Each structure stands twice: as structure tokens, then as C-alpha cells.
Amino acid sequence: MSHKIAVMAGDGIGREVMPEGLRVLKIAAERFGIALDFKHFDFASCDYYREHGKMLPDDWRDTLGGFDALFYGAVGWPDTVPDHVSLWGSLLQFRRGFDQYINLRPCRSMPGIKSPLADRQPGDIDFYVVRENTEGEYSSIGGRMFEGTEREVVIQETVMSRIGIDRVLKYAFELAARRPRHKLTSATKSNGISITMPYWDERVAAMARTYPDVTVDKFHIDILAANFVLHPDWFDVVVGSNLFGDILSDLGPACTGTIGVAPSANINPEGHFPSLFEPVHGSAPDIAGRGIANPIGQIWSGAMMLEHLGHEDAGRAIVDAIEAVLAAGPQQAPLTPDLKGKGSTEALGKAIAEKLAG
Amino acid sequence: MSHKIAVMAGDGIGREVMPEGLRVLKIAAERFGIALDFKHFDFASCDYYREHGKMLPDDWRDTLGGFDALFYGAVGWPDTVPDHVSLWGSLLQFRRGFDQYINLRPCRSMPGIKSPLADRQPGDIDFYVVRENTEGEYSSIGGRMFEGTEREVVIQETVMSRIGIDRVLKYAFELAARRPRHKLTSATKSNGISITMPYWDERVAAMARTYPDVTVDKFHIDILAANFVLHPDWFDVVVGSNLFGDILSDLGPACTGTIGVAPSANINPEGHFPSLFEPVHGSAPDIAGRGIANPIGQIWSGAMMLEHLGHEDAGRAIVDAIEAVLAAGPQQAPLTPDLKGKGSTEALGKAIAEKLAG
Ligand SMILES: CC(C)[C@H](C(=O)O)[C@@H](O)C(=O)O
Ligand SMILES: CC(C)[C@H](C(=O)O)[C@@H](O)C(=O)O
């Protein structure tokens, strides 16, 4: 039985890194005897928007709903389509429409990638950010009043539900319980945001009672962000709301130096809908079209996808291949310019594919 | 004519660092011929709450409204009073009640304080975070429904007004215009938070047209936080909403290593109400009572207060004295344990006061 994968390259460097993601997945499929069935779509891109006046066809739920996973590049081309239009019309639709309520991002130092933090070596930083991915601060409720006048006011509601909070906490507690350090950190701001965040804290405290083996702590988001810089070794699994998780899952990879190569998974854990895998980086209009984008985020996202589909060994092998090529360094391996090498997107993708093929 | 200063030490280490803040202010007053008239209050502390069931007396507006400035220590004692009660009952009341709509925090590397970032030297990082301090995400509008059931939901509104946004932007543009690099960075999240943040962006764009000499850029908060770590030298003045400013003004000092010594000002620029000056650090229950808290945040806040009151030379002299003592290092100066020294709170305060006295 083959896994059906919907491929959407998106915009900008998304189109350049996607072929490398697919190249490596195909090698993994061969080596581990996995049947992958790819189907390509041109929607969920700003080019599609220019032609059709929308980011997705109206029947996108039916078109994509039957796939086992979505493999996405990067979306956004702000010169022609404002970000809140392109993102809300694609990625954020998928997350909600397919109830991908977990956003999972590893923050792990990688060999050959220097952390911007002093005295941090590969191995020092290794944690996950688990982000609520469907509600919270990313609501679409609210509006504007007294438009165009001095009295103009905008209001937007943050909406958190017990169901929404409890399910992301459960995922995070389970993940922490499986990790060696059994540690969960909750991001809050209950001292300032006085209605939603105290409720978040309550739910964390309630669930902590049912996981006595997991050590739980919490920090307000301001000092938590500071502690990512000051004490990144403190963290094992960090859980946060949609906005706090968004911030922390960029800041974490920044602290490891891996922001250009970090992957992410948007997961519907029950498998009622396809989950989506995409690099953390965006479409990078500034370097798009030059063939120098780093494809590792896309390739690593492919590894997370294989793990999600039940092929942990194949996922692990891809990450090992990435690490081996990174460890070889810019002299021995065709690393891209962001990694101080002279390699192209394609050359780096091929090097990882070859390493994986063995 | 003397400046009337209301002194509130607050909780925990607030009570230990406040005497040192006052010690240094008194020396500055002598040296520069400034008349300062201090009056002490025990409210705005959790001890007061325990006795009176509230953080502030009912007539606090009248009691404090006639002062020229408020000099605050640190507030919070979560073991007995939940943070959202103590903070909303004191600091956040002052900010709103006295319309202190600017929160200003320098992020500056200091001699003798090592940045946790690799390869960053004193002088490399020098910017201000200007935070909106009265509206935005810190609203008190919202509530809870279906309490105690599976359907439970909490809602909190973010409220931004044109007046509220424009006045903080104006302050930030003016500050950027006065600084050598003329650069302003706006923190946004208009790609995800689709109602309030696009409006924020609009107001920034509108005001940018009236400040042609200021270079303006914007980043989404996730990548902006990452760039604080990756490229702290990019920034000159950074402006953000109440929540984004809160996060960035902890993260910035963390990147310079100065989080334990950073000051902040809560300003009502028109002077209709007293402005408030307080260290960035909190009440630190873990080290309270031991006489080892670092008093520099309190002392530096005093310097910001004197500048605000029109005594720039005196403020500058205090900062010079702080820098001189820090530069002397833990062998020569009685630095506190957080700075790898063996000095007490009092000894460090005295050393700075002596340096200032000349
Ligand atoms: C204590 C808390 C309410 C406060 C805030 O979030 O404003 C603090 O973090 C600060 O930045 O002054
Ligand atoms: C592009 C944007 C809407 C998105 C988000 O904020 O969720 C991105 O930053 C991410 O983290 O995937």
C-alpha cells in the first residue's frame, strides 16, 4: 500500500528546495522499501492567486482530504500578494481545515552549524517546541470601527477552548513522557494577559496531576524568550499557544543557528485529516531564483513526514545523512552560501541523497 | 524648586535595591545641585495586600498624582498573591491610570558584562525598545463561558486605537530621528494576526511618510526575535505593541547579558501625570532577603528618572559611574554574585555612589 503525498512547492525558494526534498524522499523510499505516490499541485502559491484571484480552488478540501500527507515548500510573495492574504488563504487554511492542531518543531544543534550563542556546542541544545496550531491569538474574529477618523479602533479576539488547550497539552505531556528528561515547560503571560493566560495555566496545572512523572515548569513569555538565549540547555519540551509557539519556534532554531535548515510538522494526530510538513523558513524573495537556497529544511521536513507515516527508521536515516554532510563542512561538501560553502541547492540535495543511498 | 518623588520599594529584592537607588540619587542631587524631595509609600506591595486586601488605597490617584515621578522597586510575591492580581493591582494600574503610554528600555552592552552571544563586544549592541504601554493585548475585556464543562471557552480582546498607536509611533520616530542611525524597526505579525496587526502596519506606513529621514523596516515578531539573537547590531529603535514590546524588551537585555541590570521608564510624555521608573527585573523571591541582589537596575532607573526630569548631565553621570564600576571587574569592585563577584547589594550601591561623588 502506497502513501499518497500531495506536493505543493509554493513560492520563491519553495520551488527550488522542493525538488531536493523529493529527491531525498525517493532515495529513502527505495532504500527502505516504502511506496510513495506523489501528486503535484500548483495552488497554494501567489502565482496561482494572480491567475485565479484566490490561493486555493474551492474544492481544496475534497482534492487534498484523501492524501496521507501534504508536503509543502514555502508560501508568500509580498510584492504582489500581501502576506496576510497569501498565508490566510493557504497554510492557515490547511492548519484549520485539516485540524492540524499540533505544530511540532525540533530545536537541535547540528554538527557543523555554529550556534550564535557563546560556548554552546552541538549536543547542548536539544528540545521540541509544541505549538497550538488552530486557535488562540490567530482568530479571525474582530474588526474595525470609526474607520478613517481619529477615534478609529481595531479589535481582535483571542479565543481558547478547553478542548483546544487540553489536546495540545496532552500531546506535549506525552512527548515529554517519552523523552529522557521528562520535562515540560509551559509558556504563559498570566501576569499581563489576564483572562486567557490564567486559564491556560489552570489547564496545565490540571493535566500535570495526571502525569506525575513529567516535571512541569512555566515561564512568562518575556523571560522565557530571554531564557532561550541564557539557558537553552534547560529545555526539553516547550508548549505554547499559537502566537507564543510561533515566536519560540523561530527563536529556538535561531539560538542553535539552524533557522535556515529547521523543519516543521503540522499534525492532526488522530489521522482524520492529512498532516502537513514544511520547512520553517519562508519563500525568501531576496534570494529566490538564484539556485542557492539551502534545501535542508525541506529535506528534514520530509524526514518528519516519513516518521509520521510510521517509518521512523527512514526518517532517522535522512537526518543522519543530513548530519553527515553538514559535519563534512564546506571544504568537503557542497554546502550552500548560508553555510559558508559554494554549493548550489541542487548540489547539496544530491550530496545528501548520495549519503543516504550509502 | 524641588522635584517631588514618590518612592515605592514593593516586594522581595525591591526593598533591598531601593535604598541603593536612593543613595545614588542623593549623591547626584548634591553634585548637580538638584533638589529631590522623596516620600515613601508602603502600598503597591504584596505585604500591603495582605493587610488591606488590595494593592493600592482607593485614593491612590490623588495621593500620587501630584508627584513629579514615581520611583518603583519590584512587585510580586506569587506564594501569597497571584501575579495577575498583584501586577494588575499596582504596576498596570499606574501605567493606565497615569497614561504612561511609553515604556522605554535601553538594550545596551555594558563594559564587564559578557553577552551570551558569541563574538559580541561592548559597543556592538545599542538600541532602544519603545513599547506601547496602555492598550493592545493587555486588555481587561473578555471572559469565560461554559465554565467547568468540556465546552469551556475563554475570550480576550486585543484593542488598539489610532490614538494609542499613533502616539507611541510618534515617540519612537522622534527618538529614531534624534539617534545617529535614524533607524526604526516595527514589530508586527500581520501575516498571522490578521485584524489588529495589519492596522498597526498601516499606521506605521502612514507616519513613515512624515519622517522621510528615518529609515523604517518591519519584521514579524517571530523572525524579529530570531534577529535579536542573530543580528542585534541591526537595531537602533524598535517599536512594538504592549505584548511584543514586553517580549523584546526582555529578550534585548538578555542578548546583551544585562537583564539583571536593565532599567525601564514608563512615561507620560506630556507630563500630565507622573512617569514611573523601575528596574526590568522582578522581585526575585528566590534570592530575596539575602542582601545579594544587584542594585544596578534600580540605580540606572534613577538615572533615567533624572534625565526625564530635565537633568541629562546627572543621568549621564550616573550611567558613567555604573560603567566605571562594572569595568573595574569583580577583583577591584564589590560586584554582586550574579556578576561573579562577592559584593553585597549595599557594597555595590556604595561603590557606585562613591564613583559618582568623584
Ligand atoms: C510583570 C508584568 C505584568 C510586566 C509586563 O508584562 O508588562 C513586566 O513583564 C514588565 O515588562 O514590566
Ligand atoms: C507565515 C506565518 C503565518 C506562519 C505563522 O505565524 O504561523 C509562520 O510564521 C509559521 O510559523 O509557520
TrEMBL record, chains A, B:
Keywords for the protein's UniProt record, in alphabetical order: Manganese, Metal-binding, NAD, Oxidoreductase
InterPro entries: ICDH/IPMDH, IsoCit/isopropylmalate_DH_CS, IsoPropMal-DH-like_dom, TTC_DH
Cofactor dependency: Mn(2+); Mg(2+)
Presence of keyword NAD: yes
Recorded catalytic activity of this chain's protein: (R)-malate + NAD(+) = pyruvate + CO2 + NADH
Signal peptide positions on this chain: none
EC number of the protein: 1.1.1.83
Broad enzyme group: oxidoreductase
Gene3D superfamilies: Isopropylmalate Dehydrogenase
Database matches in SUPFAM superfamilies: Isocitrate/Isopropylmalate dehydrogenase-like (SSF53659)
Domain Isopropylmalate dehydrogenase-like: 4-352
Superkingdom of the source species: Bacteria
Protein name from the UniProt record: D-malate dehydrogenase (decarboxylating)
Family statement drawn from the similarity comment of this UniProt entry: Belongs to the isocitrate and isopropylmalate dehydrogenases family.
